[in-house]
Amino acid sequence: MTRQPKLDQVFQFIDQTTVQLQKILRVSYHEALSENILNILQQKTYVEDDFPTPEQVAQLDKEYQTLTLQDYPLTVVKQAVELAIVKAQKVDQTEVNLLMTPDAIGVITALIVAEIFPQKTRKPLKVVDPCMGSGNLLLTVAQQLQTSTDLTFNLTGLDNNDSLLALATAYMQAIQQPVDLYQQDAVAYWLQHDYDLALADLPVGYYPVDENVVNFKTRAEEGHSYAHHLIIEQTMKNIRPGGIGLFVVPAQVFQTEQAPILAKWMVESVYLQAVLSLPSSLFTSAAATKSIIVLQRHGEQAQQAPEVLIGEIDDLNKSTSLVTLRNQLRDWSQKTFNWGTNND
């Protein structure tokens, strides 16, 4: 499939100027991309400690004057930035846990959120992504819902990686999406609480600092604990009573040696409302497949679903898949969630 000319034009401009800046600054493509996007938006080169040199600044500024990002549709800008992030991942050989969440997962997540929360909700929903990364999951969900529903949001992103947060900052400014970003370990104490909704594509692996998690119910009895278990627990602690958490997790999350600990915590602290396997076509191998789990914190009108929604999401490129999924979600949501009548 050929890309649209405007998309090619914006991506090639971002890519070419990023490569120029990368050579000048002698940094990774990823780091150059973050700074370059902000330069493109300002049409001016950022200078620190007299670097880049005046001659280099003059050449870059001349380039930046040839394209105004604001002249292009936000959908085109978003796609172009995504393509640049994908190139950064290839050029810099980014580790798996730091890879951008594909748009398809964001679209599926948005479908789930749209069915969980009533359209008559008038207050902005407080939404957090505790593993923000480059921000694509949170921003894709927000854009999808702003287009297809009447829901409004206050968005927050957390991440302990300053380089990824810098990229997320540039990305959100490029597509004009306000997000409050904080650099912090998602397992540590959160300064903000009472979110209505959490979304996260969780990093998978062991959390290295055992003394930080002695009070966690999902910690391992011996050795390091799974970071994704700990982040789920900490996130749900900071969701308001009755609030929702949607987590992208390994498909084998309930089949590991630490799974019984996670399951025990879930029974005691949250309602497991859905487990949905994502389309296998989104992943490079069976071992890499993921699922979305939907959790609800106890309290308010929250109750366990009469029947946990368990299933496999079909390839959304099939014409009937989207309609089938939406109907399944709507039926499940109506039986599961009781938001009462006061949505102010």
TrEMBL record:
<keyword id="KW-0808">Transferase</keyword>
<feature type="domain" description="DNA methylase adenine-specific">
    <location>
        <begin position="101"/>
        <end position="329"/>
    </location>
</feature>
<dbReference type="GO" id="GO:0032259">
    <property type="term" value="P:methylation"/>
</dbReference>
<dbReference type="GO" id="GO:0003677">
    <property type="term" value="F:DNA binding"/>
</dbReference>
<dbReference type="Pfam" id="PF21106">
    <property type="entry name" value="YtxK_like"/>
</dbReference>
<keyword id="KW-0489">Methyltransferase</keyword>
<dbReference type="InterPro" id="IPR048375">
    <property type="entry name" value="YtxK-like_N"/>
</dbReference>
<dbReference type="GO" id="GO:0008170">
    <property type="term" value="F:N-methyltransferase activity"/>
</dbReference>
<protein>
    <submittedName>
        <fullName>Class I SAM-dependent methyltransferase</fullName>
    </submittedName>
</protein>
<dbReference type="InterPro" id="IPR052933">
    <property type="entry name" value="DNA_Protect_Modify"/>
</dbReference>
<dbReference type="InterPro" id="IPR029063">
    <property type="entry name" value="SAM-dependent_MTases_sf"/>
</dbReference>
<dbReference type="Pfam" id="PF02384">
    <property type="entry name" value="N6_Mtase"/>
</dbReference>
<feature type="domain" description="YtxK-like N-terminal helical">
    <location>
        <begin position="9"/>
        <end position="88"/>
    </location>
</feature>
<dbReference type="InterPro" id="IPR003356">
    <property type="entry name" value="DNA_methylase_A-5"/>
</dbReference>
